[in-house]
Amino acid sequence: MIETNLDQAYNLRQMMSKSRNPKIITVASGKGGVGKSSFSVNLALALSAMGVHPMVVDADFGLANIDVMLGVASRYNVSHFLSGEKTLEEIVQTGHGGVRFISGGSGVMELINMDDQQLQDVLGGIISLENPADIIICDAGAGITENIVQLILASTETVIVTTPEPTAILDAYALVKTVVQRDCTHTLDIIMNKCDNKEEANRVLDGFLNIVSRYMGKHVNALGFVRYDRAVEESIKRQTPLMLTQPEGLVARDIKAIAHNLLNIPIDPASSGRLSRFFSRVFGRN
Ligand SMILES: Nc1ncnc2c1ncn2[C@@H]1O[C@H](COP(=O)(O)OP(=O)(O)OP(=O)(O)O)[C@@H](O)[C@H]1O
Ligand SMILES: [Mg+2]
Fold first, then answer.
1. Mutate to test the pocket of ligand 1, among 232, 253, 254 (most ligand atoms within 8 A of CB)
2. How far is CA 66 from CA 38, 41, 42, 44, 70, in A?
3. pTM for this entry
């Protein structure tokens, strides 16, 4: 069983490395409710503003909510692709801010119980999309299920979202351990969400990174932190991402800094026009 799953992850990675396909970033956590979906949507908008073309895949299959966060009543989701009614290209929708996304379907039992083959079909399909995006952000569900681990192992890198709560930290640690046991070379990043301030974020992040390094010999990249702000909840109620309603607010600034760190570029607001032109060249657009 494990060998079959490892083979699948290997096949998917092979498909990715052979193609000129985009970077696939999975956002995962272990613990639920830490802010993966809000982060995924706002990260996509931050990348868009930098001239990068993102696509969000709601990989919380069967319990998806990215469409609601982007103000769209979804017509199609992954189940229409699996049933053969639609191609993956045909189920791509556009939400607020022009963010393109694929809905993972809500309340669809067969998606909640997706088997290995179906998961591989979906991931393989995403990887092979014609000109989909520069960066595909896969918003995973909570927990450390085999499907989530498969998604992580098939991705280019994984951003683990946690909060300073010990329960969230423990689950993040368990997720890192699971991934490292399966593929110790997989690139792992971490962000600390819902922090009171920078000092708290850095203290908890440093502690986490030290323990992971000492007990697993694994380096996890700290991409940054996002402060707690009730405006995030308000933006979900209004079905319009915070990056659009409060683009200069604290949370938006924190997420923009993370987007820069993810692409490994320094933050310089004055350079946004240059950045946009730079990414157009890097990703081969006019
Ligand atoms: N930085 C933040 N400040 C305040 N509240 C936040 C922040 N980030 C997320 N939240 C709130 O936390 C709750 C959970 O957010 P979200 O749905 O994004 O988490 P999730 O990890 O995707 O959850 P699930 O595991 O159920 O998929 C929401 O009510 C959201 O408004
Ligand atoms: Mg979610």
1. 232
2. 8, 7, 11, 11, 6
3. 0.88
With a 6 Å cutoff on the Cβ, whether 194 touches ligand 1 is yes
CA distance 141 to 201: 23
The region of weakest confidence among 5-14, 65-74, 154-163, 183-192 is 5-14
Residue 32 alpha carbon to ligand 2 centre in Å = 7
Could you say which ligand is closest to the alpha carbon of residue 69?
1
Helix (H, G, I), strand (E, B) or coil at 189: strand
Contacts of 207 (CB under 8 A, 6+ apart): none
3-state secondary structure of 4: helix
The burial of 219, by beta-carbon neighbours within 10 Å (0-12 exposed, 13-18 middle, 19 or more buried), is given as exposed
Instruction: Determine how many CB atoms are found less than 10 A away from the CB of residue 134.
Output: 20
Q: What does CATH list as the number for 2-263? A: 3.40.50.300
Which atom of ligand 1 is the closest one to the Cα of 195? 1
How far apart are the C-alpha atoms of 29 and 32, rounded to whole Å?
7
* Cα 191-107-153 angle, rounded to 5 deg: 40
The finding on whether 40 has its CB within 6 A of some atom of ligand 1 is no
Burial (CB < 10 A; 0-12, 13-18, 19+), residue 91, is buried
In this prediction, residues 211-219 reach a mean pLDDT of: 97
Whether residue 185 is predicted with pLDDT greater than 80 in this model: the reply is yes
Q: How many residues does the chain have?
A: 286
The mean pLDDT value for 173-180 works out to 97
Tokens of residue 174, six digits:
């368990």
